[in-house]
Amino acid sequence: MEKTIIKYENSPYQEKYATIISKFSNLGLFILVISYLGYISGFSEPFIPFSELSSYWSLPLGDFIEKSGAPVGWQWLDLLAFGDYQNFIGIALLSGVTIIAYGGLFLHFLKSKQRLFLSLVTLELFFLLLAASNLIQVGGH
To answer: Do the domain assignments include residue 56?
Structure first.
């Protein structure tokens, strides 16, 4: 029996998407590590002091938010000066990697004038950004 070898090459947009995902995922992980090191070393002052931290652990979410003054939704952006919120930058970047990659695809398809793919990517970006914006709230949370 003869062995068949199938050669597969990625399309340019697949390469672009994978490159963006890889680079921004690595950047997000790097930011997580650096922000964590800054937090545990005491380089960045925490919003909730270490001495008070354990008193909040057993609280229900509503009580925790009320007693600690913790932010809700995108309000964490106001607290980026504090070490315990700086890791949110890495988390937000990791959760937004798909949006960033689709942005790269949008530019690629815009430049190459591939209207069908451009339309699909535009719709995908619209719904991803809509979901991230918190303008639509579905469910009981």
So the answer is: yes
